Amino acid sequence: MLCVISTDIKKSSFLWNKDKDAMFKALQWHNAILRACFAKFNFKICDSSPEGDAFIASSGEDDTVAIKCIENIIYLMDDARKNKYLNVGTGEGFENQIHIRIGLACGDQVTDTTKYNSQGVTVNGKPCKKTGSHTVCSNSIVFRSEQAEITCKGWTKHYNYFGKGQHIVEPTEGTVIWEDVNKAYTKPKRLQRTGMVLFIHNKCDSKINYCGQTNTVVTVVNRLAEGGWITVKVKRDKTAMLINLSITNPCDAKKEFDRMVTNEVKYCAAFGTFNVVLNTAANNDCYGPDAFGDTVNAAARMDNALAFLDEPDGIVVEIKTRKSLNLGSGSVYVYKKQRLKL
């Protein structure tokens, strides 16, 4: 049997916009709770986790073990909120703290062999993430666990078990203790960089079923890795996120966007300043890079387009409000590659 747990933070964009520094600090406690619980119950965390605010973890144990793991996560999250470790900004309401959705799906063991290449972020001459091939966490059970997680509504309904409906867990103290969480807690390196952020989206017709077309995304990712792109994550069969820190001006960003855009996938990009986060473990190994900030969020909301956070000189752009992209006040400047008319 294979059991997969998927998690995501509820209304994370709202929380990031509310107080970025408080959200970043709270996020590290969120990460520590999940890592401690997954370790205690022998769940292997997906190579690309955390995917921003989300985790995927799998185990060969049966569903009773998976549910115990979830009960521990929910108890510790509740206790952390009471002790204000997960507070974001001011206020006592649910909307001022981190809450998560959790999805569970179990089924027959699935072999996943699709791999992507990663360059790693270099700091002081040393890569934070080992270069080489990494397995993509993508199969029908992963997809089902995410579907269960997505359907958790409201602040108190914490998790769904795919095919078995909504569950509300009463938080009770479990196997994982705060000493375990403290050991899993890390203070990641946070580097501010100017560069290009890219999301590629597989052209998968189905929005409700697993497509099983991981190879399309991985083929593009591996090709881009040869040109200096750092793969942050490959998100199952549909999406991948990459960053390029060698592109330092808008003109080069436009040239790169024009060069790489093809019809095989959607290319959604942005150029500007963002935070590169290096999640370092207690033994100084790296979980891998992640990236946060308005440039990342702008890229995620493009559709075969390149967004500039500041107005670029000499590039024809369409001006959009930041509010239309859920980025606060001000403007965003959007460029689309001109298609040749035959």
CATH superfamily of the largest domain: Nucleotide cyclase, GGDEF domain
CATH fold title of the largest domain: Alpha-Beta Plaits
Sketch the topology as an H/E string, one letter per element: EHHEEHEEEEEHEEHEHEEHEEHEEE
Cα-to-Cα separation, first versus last residue = 54 Å
Q: From the 3D coordinates, which CATH architecture of the largest domain would you assign? A: 2-Layer Sandwich
Indicate the overall shape: globular
Helices, by number, come to 8
Number of strands: 18
In percent terms, what proportion of residues is strand?
25-35%
Uncertain runs? none
The biggest beta sheet, please?
A: 8 strands, mixed
In CATH, what is the class of the largest domain?
A: Alpha Beta
How many domains is the backbone divided into?
2
Structural class category: alpha+beta
**Approximate helicity band:** 25-40%
What number is the mean pLDDT?
A: 86
Using the CA coordinates, give the radius of gyration.
Answer: 20 Å
What is this structure's SSE topology?
Elements: E1 2-9, H1 12-18, H2 20-40, E2 44-45, E3 55-59, H3 63-82, E4 100-107, E5 115-118, E6 122-123, E7 126-127, E8 132-135, H4 140-150, E9 159-161, E10 165-167, H5 178-184, E11 189-202, H6 214-225, E12 230-235, E13 239-244, H7 250-260, E14 265-280, E15 286-292, H8 294-300, E16 305-308, E17 318-321, E18 331-335
Parallel strand pairs: 4-9, 14-16
Antiparallel strand pairs: 1-3, 1-4, 2-3, 5-8, 6-7, 9-10, 11-13, 11-14, 12-13, 14-15, 16-18, 17-18
Helix pairs in contact: 1-2, 2-3, 2-5
